[in-house]
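hey
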């Protein structure tokens, strides 16, 4: 029996108020500060982390959450294939942005971790918009406090590098190496899909990851096998244990999503980008993020539209577990 939707958590309908009106929130959902009474009853919180000081080359992802919110006014209420209605299935709300510190990496990592620990304690499942990929590390520190989790990671890069420049271990190319070292991720339950592009040295990131037990599926294998077979393997690897999903927009070929800091050609198109998320249905997903949308590199908003459309796909998967 499906429960009745809670009117408090319904988005503004474009049939009642045009999409270009009002203050933009994620998918026109109500906004509540996570630590106020208004947030009581929230089951899925959409959260921005507008920070990119982990970026090693082309910055701009700090502006991602704002543009993603703006483009998300185009999202409607019902999934076109599954007919899922996530805003009816779960109490969803925009919980705002983490108050980051753009001048201090460790300060920001602490702020993000504390924010997500608070919402985790409230029983809220986070769907996060970055920001660069380093933001996934403090989110995992909060969500994996009770023990290591699995992860399905869509990206063109492993983000398993050790250091950059003068031994810096905290960049957007290192978060998942740190997460494995800190016991936040169980490498035997980590799958990375879509890896491609030129690399530093002797592909040490790939070799290190595989030595730990990470399953790394490079783009050639992905296209040879097809997304259904690859995702069947990913599902088998993470099983029914708690699993995090991290989706870097540069997983998508830059012909379709050029607005990102480190684009790599030869990736999936937007149709395939949706399909791999749909194959996540039924998994025990404890949170998800969509990162590395960088508006300065696509001022049309096209990349942000791709990104927030993928966030809607993720929301449909997350909300299914909330049905009563």
């Amino acid at each position: 029996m499906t429960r009745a939707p809670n009117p408090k958590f319904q988005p503004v309908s474009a049939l009642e108020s045009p999409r270009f009106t009002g203050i933009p929130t994620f998918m026109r959902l109500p906004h509540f500060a996570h630590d106020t009474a208004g947030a009581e009853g929230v089951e899925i919180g959409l959260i921005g982390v507008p920070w990119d000081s982990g970026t090693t080359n082309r910055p701009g992802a700090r502006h991602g959450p704002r543009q993603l919110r703006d483009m998300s006014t185009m999202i409607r209420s019902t999934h076109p294939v599954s007919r899922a209605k996530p805003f009816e299935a779960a109490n969803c709300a925009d919980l705002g942005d983490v108050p980051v510190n753009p001048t201090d990496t460790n300060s920001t990592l602490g702020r993000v971790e504390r924010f997500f620990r608070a919402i985790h304690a409230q029983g809220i499942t986070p769907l996060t918009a970055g920001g660069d990929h380093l933001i996934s590390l403090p989110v995992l520190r909060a969500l994996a406090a009770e023990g290591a989790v699995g992860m399905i990671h869509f990206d063109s890069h492993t983000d398993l590098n050790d250091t950059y420049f003068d031994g810096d271990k905290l960049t957007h190319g290192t978060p998942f190496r740190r997460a494995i070292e800190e016991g936040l991720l169980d490498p035997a339950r980590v799958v990375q899909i879509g890896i491609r592009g030129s690399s530093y040295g002797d592909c040490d990131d790939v070799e290190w990851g595989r030595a730990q037990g990470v399953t790394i599926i490079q783009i050639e294998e992905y296209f040879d096998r097809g997304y259904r077979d690859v995702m069947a393997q990913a599902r088998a690897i993470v099983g029914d244990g708690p699993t995090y999903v991290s989706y870097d927009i540069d997983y998508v070929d830059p012909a379709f999503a050029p607005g990102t800091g480190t684009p790599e050609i030869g990736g999936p198109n937007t149709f395939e980008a949706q399909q791999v998320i749909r194959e996540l249905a039924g998994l025990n997903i404890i949170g998800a993020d969509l990162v590395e949308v960088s508006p300065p590199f696509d001022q049309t908003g096209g990349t942000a539209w791709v990104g927030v459309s993928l966030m809607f796909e993720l929301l449909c998967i997350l909300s299914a577990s909330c049905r009563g």
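The first strand starts at residue 44 and ends at 49. The chain has one domain: 41-320.
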